[in-house]
Amino acid sequence: MRISSELTDAAIAQILGERIARHRIEAGLTQAELAERAGIGKRTVERIEAGRGAELLTLIRILRSLHAMEGFERLLPELPASPIEQLKLRGKQRQRVSHARRGALPDRSRPVAEGTPARPWRWAEPAPQGAPATGGAGGPKRRS
User: Fold this and answer.
1) Contact, 141 vs 134, CB < 8 A?
2) Which of 29, 51, 52, 99 could bond to 14 as cystine, CB 3.0-4.6 Å?
3) What is the pLDDT of residues 10-45, one digit of tens each?
């Protein structure tokens, strides 16, 4: 049977369990031998083959023992970046998703009034003109 989104989670687990059992039998392994190779209990192999659930790490161990890891690559292939995204990122990889939030702080990278910096001030840069001078850990500059 083909796995599709119309099937229930339980039905998909049942199909995967049956497929694991067929791969195990084709490899000439008993449930106990597969369990030993995967470093799990025989009872865990029995439950998985019956379609009664498994942790992801357990499933990975079983598929590795059956030499079926390439199935994961087909299951969820890596997505290539779109050409527009490649231009925007220019070699940088996205680390997180951001959404506009209600009440979010204003964008400080744009000038607010004439004479303000075009980008935010960073440490190790001179303070923008008109900003109070600080010394050391951010306190007022001491006069000698």
Assistant:
1) yes
2) 51
3) 998 999 999 999 999 999 999 999 999 999 999 999
Distance (Å, whole) CA 87 – CA 70: 31
Coil, strand or helix: which one is 135? strand
Q: For residue 135, is it within any domain? A: no
| Domain region containing 45 | 9-75
pTM score of the predicted model: 0.54
pLDDT computed for residue 102 by the predictor: 67
Query: Between 76 and 4, where is the model more confident?
Result: 4
Q: Provide the terminal-to-terminal Cα distance of the chain, rounded to the nearest Å.
A: 84
Q: Give me the phi and psi of 101, to 5 degrees please.
A: -110, 145
Q: Is residue 112 part of a domain?
A: no
5-14 CB contacts, 8 Å cutoff, 24+ apart: 10/51, 13/51, 13/52, 13/53, 14/50, 14/51
Which of the two residues, 66 and 88, has the higher pLDDT score? 66
Give residue 97's identity as a one-letter amino acid code.
Answer: V
